[in-house]
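Suppose you are handed a protein chain with no further information: no name, no annotation, nothing but its sequence. What can you learn? This example shows the usual starting point.
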Amino acid sequence: ELDLEGRWEVGWLWGRALLQLGEELRGREGIGFVEEALERFSELSERFPKLYLGSLYRGIAWIERGRLAGYREGDFEKAVGVLSDLVVDFPEDYRGFYQLGRAYFYWAKGLERGQRREGLLQRAVEFFEQAAQLRPDRGRIYFYLAQSLDGLAMEREGVEADRVLRQSIEVWQRAYRAQPDLEGLLTGWGIALYHLSKTSGTFERVHFLREAIEKFQKVASPQEETYFYWGCALYELALSQSGFLVETLLEQAKGKFLEVERLSRGRGAYWLARICARQKREEELCRWLDVAREQRRLPPLEVLQREEAFAPYTSRDWWQVFLANVRVDRI
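A reasonable first move is to predict its three-dimensional structure. Written in structure tokens, the prediction is:
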């Protein structure tokens, strides 16, 4: 029972424990515990309306419920409502701005690319920047700020995308200086460098690809996302090289995408098909194209037909049959 004598710590600690349990369990059971935490924090806010931690954790609980429920917009809207009032009342505490940034970041994460998503990411950037001004020593603030900038860059094109990505790289560097052991930091930094390579000229492109690979190599426990972009960077670097180095890099890329396939069937299949095509391994090429098709991981038909790696095979009967099947799949 909440302490009716005025001891708010009991309800707050109870709510925090429920919230942590929900985050760890995930799924329906996890959502149930997060909803219980919301009840505790709501009771706290009613009994102690001026209690900062009650409102802060009520906002956090709405964010976590939104995440666990598949990025449900209504939950993020409620989080924004609670946290927006909080930063007005407590403008000197970075935590309100930081959590407000997280609310907008995860809200955007559940949306398709477009102006609305771009607007939410821009708001996330603004609030993370405010939090960083208040606590410049917090690596996790920069971590989210960099991710928000990366997402914003994906909404832009050409010079503007390049500008935002370069800004993101500076923020990843700040995050590393503040907290070098932060989980996911090196992977996120490497992914940003990979994307920056695609907006850069030839010399810079090779430089950024090498830097991305260097970051992935330092990841202590690589996950699916690490392996995927590591493979992408190795493949793209191979295309800029000549001689025996090309085959060496392609084999390394192949190893990363095989790890991706082990973790998520189909995600690395199309890239493996491209690698096998360049290695002139036609049987493997066919097998990986079939996997990509079965798992619905193929790019649009026009991209597939323009892919340079497949050019030597376009006169083959099997290629025409494959394209015909892809067209049927998409009717």
